[in-house]
Structure formats: structure tokens, C-alpha cells
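#struct-help
A.M.: can someone run this one for me? Single chain, 554 residues.
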Amino acid sequence: MQESTQASQRKFDVVVVGAGLAGVYALYKLRGLGLSVHVLEAGSGVGGTWYHNRYPGARCDIESLDYSYSFDDGLQQDWSWSERYAAQPEILRYINHVADRFDLRRNIQLDTKVTSAVFDEDSNEWTLSTDAGEAFEARFAVMATGVLSVPQVPSTRGLEDFRGEWYHSGDWPHEGVDVRGKRVGVIGTGSSGTQMIPILAEQADELLVFQRTPNFCMPAQNHPIKPEVEQEWKATYPERRAFARQSGFGHNQVTNPKSGKEVSAEERLAELENRWNLGGLYMMRAFKDILVDKEVNEEASEFVRGKIRSIVADAETAEALSPRHLPIGTKRLCSGTGYYETFNRANVTLVNVKDSPIERISATGVRTAEADYDVDVLVFATGFDAMTGALNRLNPVGRGGLQLRDHWAAGPQTYLGLTVSGFPNMFIIAGPGSPSVFSNMVTSIEQHVEWVADAIDYLDSNGLKTIEASREAERGWVQHVNEVAEGTLYRESKATWFYGSNIPGKPVVFMPYVGGVGNYWKRITELARAGYSGFLLDGDDQPVVPAEKAAVRA
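D.P.: on it. C-alpha cells below:
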């Protein structure tokens, strides 16, 4: 990869941390304002999550034609996707194409891990230090560190004793892993696990799937994109992009405007069947109240459990794979190909570790409360320290020596998911308190980057030096985020990474914003137009407007 030509320069208008989809667009957008921008990326290539997540079967669960940049019409017209849901290699090629097409590599420094970020109140500048001993100064720090970028390997006793090979889905070897003729164990059945398990089953001699909590997995219904579909999308991109930005989830999957109870039982069944056949995440758009009304949700949940029973031959295995007491969609909904069918294979065994927990990793495999399972290869599909993991590890230091880790000790505190009180001129892309993981991430990234660019331009145009969230506005927004979540069925399922409960010791706090992408975008745009309500500009002691007016109310 080409190394940054700015290696000797140490002072910039903006330093961006991370060169995934967010960092790449931030560089393009901010550089277009005439700002000096430098991107620091820990990996050896651009791509972020799509650079690191190379496990078998890795692909997006948003349609490719939607999961792409909209900022340049030439780009979206010229690039052609091969499948309805793009696989990791194709998405990574796309991001590299963007970096080359817009000559972005000269401002990206790879293989550089940022180890500290400290704000200086005298100069109003951030100093970002790296693992190579370099220090970069910038007026603004943009944290494009990713919401699913810190792999979570459970602190299972005995892992150091294991004599075989072990891997995490979020840090897969670039050369791949050859499991032919081997006995493989997969721990975890979330999004990564459900995508890789069918492929590993085809390759391995034997596959053991260690499942603690079953999740719903929709058939992706993936297929090559038909030329006429691609042509129609490209001809209507302006309307489609506008619709996505104003929609609930930032994409073109249309939600049924009807509630589940205003139609007959026959109509509900037909709609659920239609959504199953559409595949992917369409099930969660079956009715407008599917994530609010428990009875409507339970009918959808039982519909999918019925599908599982019809696919999996062994009744006991089918029941073990069927989530109970989990409203569908309140744990990250999975989308895969042939997942349930895989458990009909003779070389695949489901091990229920909820009933018989894993006690330790042994030298030869996995020991549960009831048995020992020997494996040659162990794969952890155990997810990430989501949304806050990367920033908590970096632990930026703001005004008065305030450490982000301390500020977030009881859970993430942000204003709009974009800024943090006490941390001037630091912006977060798709952070906690924003739609983020409950959206088409590319839509949210573009919205955030454009908002940040406008904010910096506003400061520079008005002779202002700093912008930061007021503490009052931040508290109001955090309260609103939690109130909105409590009004949904997400309150029923707190044992998910949406709440951070997959990380021992992490505060159990709902982190994303579920008020809708369109509603969110409208609100942050209005706040900016009102002179950045709820923010302290240039060190003011009071927010621009009273904080209670700055926080959105449901």
C-alpha cells in the first residue's frame, strides 16, 4: 500500500483516526473544504471492518446498491456490484477503488496505531501520539474508529493451553484458514457465526457448533444482481438516496405502514411469508409496530420458529436453535445462506452450552460441564466490544485532564452521538447515541461526516475556535435515547451487545438511538441551523439555547 506523503508533517487542521468507510469519506469531504487532513490507520490497508473481517462467508446484510457512497454520482454510476449482498472481498475492492479514484492514499498513514489523544486548553489543539513515537497536532480530531472494531475473545480459562489453532472472526488471517480434514469448533452463533458455519461445515471433516443463546437467522436470498435491476437503481439513485436518508433505517427497504393488529390473521401470515421470501432484514419491516407490540412480535417470532422446525430434521436440534423469550429483532438479526439446513448434515453437531456451560479450553479442545470435545481448530465468533470499545481503549483526555473512560464509567455519554461534553473539537462518527448500528452504516456515516464538515466550516467562517456539547444538553440527549429504547421491545432483551452486556464489567446501558434515521437527521440538521443549539462555542459558559430545548423529546 502507498504510504502517506505527509510523513514529515506533524500539524494539521484535522486528524482522522481510522480509514474505514467513515475515515475515507471524512478525508474526502474535509479535504474538499481546503483543510489539511491526515488519517492514521492501525491496519495495513484501508477498509476498516472490511479489511479485518475476512472469515468465510463474510458479507453485508444491506443490499449492495444501498450499502455504498452517494456523495459522487460518477462513482455510483460507474461501479457495478456482482451480488445483491456483497461479500467482503468485493466491498474491500470498492473501498480501495474509492481511495484510488479520489487520490486519498497520500493523506493516509497505515500501520499506525494511535495510543493517546490529549486536548491542550491553551492552544485549543489535540495532540495524537502513536505507537511509533510520533505526535500529530490538529485543531480537530475525528474519531472514525468503528463501532465493531475491537474483537471480544471471552476470558475462557485454559485458552493458553490449547495446542491447536484458534482464531477470532474479527481478525481473520489474510491468507485464510485451511480446515480440510480437520475437526473444527465454532463458539458463537451471532452474525459472524451464522455466516461462516455453513461454509466451514462444507470444508471441515467435522464441525461442532457451541451455542449459548440461539438467535433468529433470516435467509439472505442472495443472488447475482440482474442488469435490469442495476439499471433501474442507477436511474433512480437521487430518489432512492433521498428516501434512505429520511427513512427509519437509512435504506430502501420499505416498512409496511400498517400495524399488525389492523389486518386479519390471514393477511399477517401472508405478509410474514412475503418478508421471509424477500430475505435479509426485511422481516423487521413486516409491520410498523413489530418492535413495539409484543403480541405482533411474538407472532412473527413463532412464524420463524415454525420455519426452523420445517427445515431442521431433528426435533431436538430444531428446538435448541429456536429462540424463546427473545422478541425477534431485539438481538442483532442474522442473515445467512443455508444456516439452518447445515444442521441436517451428518458432520455437524450442535452443542448446547447454555444447559452445559463451557468450563475451560483444554489442550485438545473444549470442556463443558458434561463432556470433552476435541478439536483441531477453534473459532471464536464471539463479537466485539461494540460502540465504545475502541474509544475507551484510546481513552482521549479532554478539558481539565478529564479522561473519556471516566466520563463513560456509567455508560457512554454523548450529545447526538457526535460529540462529548468536556472534549472540544472532538467528533465521533456513528457513535453511541446515534442510529449507527440500527441503520445502513454508509448512510449514517455520510450524514455524520457532512454534519461535522459543516460544523468546522461554521466555526472557521465565524472566527470561532472550539465547539463542544454542553453537559446539560448531553444529559438530555442520553435521557432521550434511553426513553425511546424503553418504549420498544429492546427493553425486554438486555442480554445483548446493544446494551454492552457481552463484555464482563461493562455498564448495561442501551447504546444506539432507535428513534429513526430520518427523525435523527432532521433534528441534528435543525440544531445546526439554529446556531448549534446545545453546544458551547469558543468556550462559552452557556449553550446557545437552553439545554431543555436542545434535547429531543419523543
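A.M.: thanks! The radius of gyration is 23 Å.
D.P.: also worth noting: The chain is about 30% helix and 15% strand.
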